[in-house]
Here is the input.
Amino acid sequence: MAGVYLSFPFCAQKCTFCNFASGVGPRVLEERYLTALGAEVAAFEWPWAPETVYLGGGSPNRIPPAGLLPLLAAIPGQPWREATIEATPGAVTPELARAWREAGIGRVSLGVQSFVQAEIAGTGRKHTAARVAEEVALLRGAGIGNINIDLIAGLPGQTAESWRESLDWVERLSAPHVSVYMFEIDQDSRLGAEILRGGARYGAPRAPDEDAVAELYETAVDRLAAMGIPRYEISNFARPGFESLHNLKYWRREPYAGFGADAHSFDGAWRRSNVESAAEYVERIERGEPLRANEEPAHPNEERFFLGLRLSAGMIPGADEWRRFEAPIRRFAEAGLLEIDGPALRLTRRGVLLSNEVFQEFLES
Here is the structure.
């Protein structure tokens, strides 16, 4: 199943936790970018008709309907099996919801991150739990019932009690899909960089430690399962039939074409990416220059383990893979991190929490 990813890396504000190549830019650059994005899509020679489309960012809800409709109309395969747009809570309007439905979008991913007001304010977001509830109702009223709620475990000031409050809201809203991300401390986000330098901005001293974050995540696993929303991938949970078809292709190594700044593509043999900067992307399009920043052959043996083991269903190694990776597989199985179930191999519950260590072993073998 092939898919399309459209990158719109512009936001109303840069959130403290964000480590994506996105941010605030001049409105005129957004307009030029949308024109450039349309030009890249129009110039693409389609080797297949995509079955899924995903608009990510940034905040692609900032794309006006007048620009979104022709952009999506240029992509073949309609009606797609799934078309998703990411949206910042507080920005969804009846007009946008109707335009999205008209454009063929049937799934919306809301970047809620938390339903607790103190935690929300600390990230730089401006929504409220009540506003999210209003927007969920608005989307359903427009005929978009496939809704994802993003949550982050590990925000400053987050406690077991406040985390339960966010999960209570998920249950109250009957969300069919939930993504739970454990906050990553790195230099690519303002909050992560502040924690690493021992600073006090962005609530850094109040960020939960790794053990506390793992406990929050485990609480979410149990609570969501009790709601009928089991985990199907390390960070993703869904009611049966509401799994993200587009994201599944990443973990199953199916082809996808990426358009826009820092967009990645995979054709089954090669992995490619565009330039990261939105300004450079626009300038290259306007000058008729190549957009590609990187191109390298895929590594199927490594990727099958690194990506396939992210899925709760696990993966089925081939005979040569069993031989090649027999030592690490046996070692992790004995340590309780991997489970061997006939021909299938999957992470145990404990293995999920230590998945990076497991993946690294296969990458180095």
About this structure: The two ends are 30 Å apart (CA to CA). The chain has a mean pLDDT of 93.
